[in-house]
Every structure is written in structure tokens, then in C-alpha cells.
């Protein structure tokens, strides 16, 4: 299972970097290329959605079937192990939510920038028609 979480962590990092590049001001010359790269990355990154849903189900199943550690029969080592397991589950849930949120933001921002580019082209064409 560690490989799945590593893949998810790298995907979250890639989504964050692409989102940062798309929204970074001052890259006007590179904007079309960065948007093109982001649009071409959206379709393969869409596989992250069912992957995240599977991992959420895994977290839920592990949480529901986790042995409870309460009362005097629980040793310090068992209590520590239980707490570590809970922390890992919470960290993994945050990672899954971050992956889904970053994908959604990347999709929305890229779509918005493409729409703005189309509108700018239409405006330029209307100005040229009006000037003629």
C-alpha cells in the first residue's frame, strides 16, 4: 500500500506545480504553452479520481475494522500503535482530498483561461471587422 500513497503524493505535487505555473503572473510569453501542457495533463490526471475513491474506501474499511484500544487492558505500546495508525489514516485522507481538490482547481482554472483566450480572439476579430 505504500506505493499507492507515494504515487498519490507525487501526483499531488505535480498538480500543485502545474497549477502554480498556470496561475503565476508574469509568464505572458509562455502562457499558451503552459496552458497547453496543463490541458494535455488533465486527461491522464483524471485517473486520479477513481484511484482516490478507491483509497478513500480503503481508509474507511481500515477504520471500521481497526481494533479498538481503550481501557486498562490496552498497553502503552498498543495505544501508541493505535494512535499512529489513526494519524496515518488522517494524513492519507487529507492527501486524497488534496488530490481531488487540486485536480478540480486545475480543471477550472485551465478551462477559464481557455475561455478568456477565446474571448480575446473574438474581441480582436470584432475590432478588425469594425476597423475595416
From TrEMBL:
GO annotation, biological process: endoplasmic reticulum to Golgi vesicle-mediated transport; intracellular protein transport; protein localization to endoplasmic reticulum exit site
Transport listed as a keyword: yes
Membrane-topology annotation of the record: Multi-pass membrane protein
Database matches in InterPro entries: BAP29/BAP31 (IPR008417)
GO cellular component, one term: endoplasmic reticulum membrane
The organism's place on the tree of life at top rank: Eukaryota
Record function comment: May play a role in anterograde transport of membrane proteins from the endoplasmic reticulum to the Golgi.
Protein name: Endoplasmic reticulum transmembrane protein
Native source species: Adiantum capillus-veneris
